[in-house]
């Protein structure tokens, strides 16, 4: 489900934004969604403007991120699924694209049981 106002404009680097969403969706599929719940897997993307920033919320309805590992998910090579082929680079790449390439910030929104993973990105409206 996508909730982005038609009038919202973001001047940025399209390839970086594409990679961010690709990695988020891959992460949701690999870590968040249980195979038996395939027909109920949802991703929510919402964007809105606050002052001179665009706020992007990305949320899935998967299993969420365990509080015990939340502080590590942006660390390069950290993965809970190495035996299933996970490299631990997906969210690290997202973090670096947001903070270094797009000059924004990213955080994990407070987790609640069974609500899924929820990330919030704040980007400048115009990336020079």
UniProtKB/TrEMBL annotation:
Its EC number is 2.7.13.3. InterPro entries: HATPase_C_sf, HATPase_dom, His_kinase_dom, Sig_transdc_His_kin-like_C. It comes from the Bacteria. It catalyses: ATP + protein L-histidine = ADP + protein N-phospho-L-histidine. It is an enzyme of class 2 (transferase). GO terms for molecular function: protein histidine kinase activity. Keywords: Kinase, Transferase. Residues 1-127 form the Histidine kinase domain. It holds the Pfam family HATPase_c. This is histidine kinase.
């Amino acid at each position: 489900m996508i909730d982005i106002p038609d009038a919202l404009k973001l001047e940025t680097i399209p390839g970086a934004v594409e990679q961010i969403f690709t990695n988020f969706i891959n992460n949701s599929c690999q870590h968040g969604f249980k195979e038996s719940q395939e027909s109920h897997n949802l991703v929510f993307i919402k964007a809105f403007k606050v002052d001179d920033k665009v706020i992007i919320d990305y949320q899935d309805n998967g299993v969420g991120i365990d509080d015990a590992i939340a502080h590590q998910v942006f660390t390069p090579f950290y993965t809970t699924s190495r035996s299933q082929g996970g490299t631990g680079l997906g969210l690290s790449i997202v973090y670096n694209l947001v903070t270094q390439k797009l000059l924004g910030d990213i955080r994990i929104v407070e987790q609640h049981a069974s609500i899924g993973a929820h990330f919030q990105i704040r980007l400048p409206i115009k990336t020079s």
